[in-house]
């Protein structure tokens, strides 16, 4: 658990470093190269090309990272712990989620809606060029809530149970869903398996996240009863079997309506709404969502430590 502790603390203190050699960026580059190869070799069956890409990337990432960890431990035990901790650090996104959200809020508070739209485009897949202030704030809250699961709880969950190489392999799963999981002409078939397999890997973490948000709502003196109510009612109001779990719990805690129709690549996509509009969304809701984010990350870290300790007794 020393490795997870190092990774978790580094994330809280430093956040996500922006450089071209970031492991997740390298994984993204690898995904693109492998995609191009299998698109050529399996051009008659894009679903198989997508599955072959997924398997190849996961194997490469897991084997390579496992080799680095083993070599590090062989050189020196302390060095191995540090290397594993740094690997885990690259997988967790607590501080970066908060920072990116606050960048959007700062632009709104400066009355620069164009900059807010631009900043928002870094963290969402929807079109942002025509969004008004309320739509921007809604998108920020939705993005933080959804990414609490796959950007924080899931990496901590997999790192705690299986170690740094598996955490990096999970991030490869998540990266391929982000890159290939679009339902457009290019990726409808190719992205089929990457999207479905991402759903499998996020199935348990998403549900853990939903309940941790409800618990956090209680601790933060938010409307935890409504959080639970909306979670139970709207947790499947999404095309993904997982995404609505954290969004529903957050929407209930804040008394907001999330989800609904948005434009993606110029095309209107109708989605179910999540939550009830008990009040109008405001900047304060982003700050509260960030507080939920941090408390959930702390709780998930604590649970991982406890499970690891209990497991070591047997």
UniProtKB/TrEMBL annotation:
Q: Name one Pfam family in it.
A: CobD_Cbib
Name the Gene Ontology molecular function terms of this record: ABC-type vitamin B12 transporter activity; threonine-phosphate decarboxylase activity
Q: How does it sit in the membrane?
A: Multi-pass membrane protein
- What domain of life? Bacteria
Known pathway:
Cofactor biosynthesis; adenosylcobalamin biosynthesis
Compartment(s) of residence: Cell membrane
Membrane in keyword set:
yes
* TM ranges: 48-69, 75-92, 152-173, 200-222, 292-311
Gene Ontology annotations for the cellular component aspect, listed alphabetically: plasma membrane
GO terms of biological process kind: cobalamin biosynthetic process
Keyword annotations of the record:
Cell membrane, Cobalamin biosynthesis, Membrane, Transmembrane, Transmembrane helix
Q: What does this protein do?
A: Converts cobyric acid to cobinamide by the addition of aminopropanol on the F carboxylic group.
Q: Which family does it belong to?
A: Belongs to the CobD/CbiB family.
Protein's name in the database = Cobalamin biosynthesis protein CobD
Gene this protein is translated from: cobD
